[in-house]
């Protein structure tokens, strides 16, 4: 199934013009003709069936014929907050894989040992959209821009949502693994630090906001790998409970 994404489409839309890049792909690459069927998503759970009304390679016009709400695959939410890596290719890989596996919120923070304090959020969102379409997912995760670590924790403290909170930090060999601490059907938020790790003060600050220290395994992981591993563990917790 080839999906096209539009952030402008709504369940009330009768027509939609594809973005120039999607128009070119639809007409030039897929060779779509007038009256051909096309499927669109809005990242909010709606799937739209339409037909090509004006097959223009720069502004392809689609007539919307049907709209259907697709229910989420999980009833809980997974929120991963991570420190951006020095190499942007790595954090982009992390975003791509987590969206494919299943994540609901992505946040980025600057901590004491972080090596990058800026990101192109438009680039991150583009990668997330591509991963959403590739994995035939109908929900685009919330993506929050880089903020200071303490600011992020203050934002978490203000939210009403009940969730289990974890920080990937291994002070002793007996630190519990995430898989043993995550409770099925709970909402989750997990902090993934930079490759220099969290400082003791940062860990203490997180613990004051209800974050539990957890291990992600015996091996030392890169930041982006740790993020993907955490995402997979939390998704498996849901799947194992459902089965």
TrEMBL record:
Alphabetic keyword roster: Cytoplasm, Methyltransferase, rRNA processing, S-adenosyl-L-methionine, Transferase
Record bears the keyword Manganese: no
Top EC class of this enzyme: transferase
Catalytic activity, as annotated: uridine(1498) in 16S rRNA + S-adenosyl-L-methionine = N(3)-methyluridine(1498) in 16S rRNA + S-adenosyl-L-homocysteine + H(+)
Chief localisation class: cytoplasm
InterPro entries in the cross-refs: Alpha/beta_knot_MTases, PUA-like_sf, RsmE, RsmE_MTase_dom, RsmE_PUA-like, tRNA_m1G_MTases_N
The name this protein goes by in its record: Ribosomal RNA small subunit methyltransferase E
Gene source species: Rapidithrix thailandica
Lineage, top ranks: Bacteria, Pseudomonadati, Bacteroidota, Cytophagia, Cytophagales
């Amino acid at each position: 199934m080839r999906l096209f994404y539009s952030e402008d489409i709504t369940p009330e839309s009768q027509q939609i013009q594809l973005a120039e890049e999607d128009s070119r792909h639809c007409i030039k690459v897929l060779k779509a003709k007038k009256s051909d069927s096309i499927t669109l998503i809005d990242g909010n759970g709606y799937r739209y069936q339409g037909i090509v009304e004006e097959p223009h390679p720069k502004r392809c016009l689609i007539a919307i014929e049907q709209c259907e709400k697709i229910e989420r695959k999980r009833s809980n939410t997974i929120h991963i907050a991570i420190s951006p890596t020095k190499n942007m290719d790595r954090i982009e890989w992390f975003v791509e894989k987590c969206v494919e596996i299943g994540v609901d919120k992505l946040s980025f923070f600057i901590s004491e040992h972080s090596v990058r304090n800026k990101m192109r959020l438009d680039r991150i969102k583009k990668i997330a959209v591509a991963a959403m379409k590739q994995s035939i997912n109908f929900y685009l995760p919330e993506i929050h821009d880089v903020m200071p670590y303490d600011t992020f924790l203050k934002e978490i403290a203000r939210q009403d949502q009940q969730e289990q909170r974890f920080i990937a930090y291994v002070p002793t060999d007996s630190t519990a693994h995430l898989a043993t601490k995550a409770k099925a059907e709970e909402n989750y938020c997990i902090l993934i630090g930079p490759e220099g790790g969290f400082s003791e003060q940062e860990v203490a600050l997180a613990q004051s906001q209800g974050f539990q220290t957890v291990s992600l395994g015996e091996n030392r992981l890169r930041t982006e790998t740790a993020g993907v591993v955490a995402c997979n563990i939390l998704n498996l917790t849901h799947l194992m409970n459902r089965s």
